[in-house]
Amino acid sequence: MHYFSTNRVSPHVSFRDAVLNGQPDDKGLYFPSDIPRLEADFVDRLPDMANEQIAFDVIRPYVAGEIPDGTLFEICSETVNFDFPLVPITDRISTLELFHGPTLAFKDVGARFMSRCLRHFSQDNKEKTIVIVATSGDTGGAVAAGFHGVEGIEVVILYPKGKVSKVQELQLTTLGGNVTTLELHGNFDDCQALAKHALADSELQSKVHLTSANSINVARWLPQQFYYFFGLKQSQGEPPVISVPSGNFGNLASGILAHISGLPVKKFIAACNANDVVTRFLETQNYEPHESVATLSNAMDVGAPSNFVRILEIFGNKFVDLKEKLESVSISDEVTAQTMREVYKETGYILDPHGAVGYRALADHLKTEPNSRGFFLETAHPVKFDSVREIIGTFGATPPSVEELYLKQKVSTEMDNDYGALREVLLSKI
Ligand SMILES: *Cc1c(COP(=O)(O)O)cnc(C)c1O
Question: Looking at residue 410, what DSSP letter applies?
Fold first, then answer.
């Protein structure tokens, strides 16, 4: 197993180098040289297997012996040490709840796996590694929590002041220790631009070992396959239709990868908000990225989904094959809110706006297939989004981890949108 760049200019690399580089120099994405096929009875055995064992078996071929089996098993077991319940909502629709991790969102899985891989690969380094991450809310929390307390690693988070929810802000600003949080006078794009500036600053890079924990890193992308297997393990009958709330398309790409490895899935639905590049691509075959528009499901406000090329790669760029397995719909904010209200009224289940997009897309699809059933991924807990209370009047029960957050002190440093100021902070971490 090695990793090549989807742009096919940069050289092939090992798993280790793909993790450490993050992105190839040619600005493509790393992609595995072959997609492993699971043993024929793997799926039948799922109900009897522990989640950590499933995770280990799924990821092992991708790591190709570059982390010893014992260590890899430990990493897997730390990565998935919380619940992934498949909860029925109606007789044909269930939700795979991915929000039982430390920051109440699916990104915990990728972030935990990646941080532990990075720790393993940098344990012989003398100098510290600084992970820089720009966040619009969800990613930063997961990455910071994933790296919190990991030896030899410093984390610097940039988030736009006043533009994340209360719970997200507390998750970003209460960790302390090796996590430094900068509250930027600017928007998310400014945060991202500053982080990119730092990563491209070769003079700075000669002094500190700086890396991003970007969602395109293979160590964040590949472990997202795990919970598709956990979903199948709990589902019965015919292969399900799986609806995935999508923004950058990493989560969906990993599900499709799992399917190619042997996971039975009838169909995937890319559930999008008003950012409809992929929905339109599947209709017209024209891929036209555009500026993102702001929606209720803000973690999916992406106008140029970076991981979509991985989906094209999986299908060997054959549009017909892609179209047979994947459907994409765009759900407006109005319908998202209406779905949240309806589902709450009829079933008592509280959807967050991202899950609501997934639910709606699946429910609409199932109307055309009376004999199918399926599940959608509930990608984050409703308490993370202030809009939930505005729309349905409640967040439901507050998870204990959030109760604890409310008791903690916010610690952050406000910063102007100025690269010089960021550079100073980074240099102070050596
Ligand atoms: C990141 C995120 C998504 C989108 O996932 P992608 O892999 O970028 O498609 C959906 N929902 C929530 C809550 C997220 O944080």
Answer: P
Q: How far is the CA of 385 from the centre of ligand 1 (A)?
A: 13
Query: Between residues 151 and 279, which one has the greater pLDDT?
Result: 279
pTM for this predicted structure: 0.95
pLDDT digits (tens, 9 = 90+) for 98-109: 999 999 999 999
Residues acting as catalytic residues: 107
Q: Which domain holds residue 255?
A: 83-105+221-400
| Domain CATH number, residue 238 | 3.40.50.1100
Query: What is the pLDDT at residue 188?
Result: 85
Q: How many domains does the chain have?
A: 1
| Residue 110's pLDDT band (cuts 50, 70, 90) | very high
Of 96, 168, 81, nearest in space to 386 by CA: 168
Domain assignment present for residue 78? The answer is no
| Closest residue CA from atom 11 of ligand 1 | 379
Verify whether ligand 1 is closer than 6 Å to residue 105 (CB atom): yes
Residue 168 Cα to ligand 1 midpoint, Å, equals 14
251 Cβ inside 6 Å of ligand 1: yes
Q: In Å, what is the CA distance from 163 to each residue of 107, 354, 387, 415?
A: 19, 17, 13, 15
State if residue 247 touches ligand 1 by the CB under 6 angstroms criterion.
Answer: yes
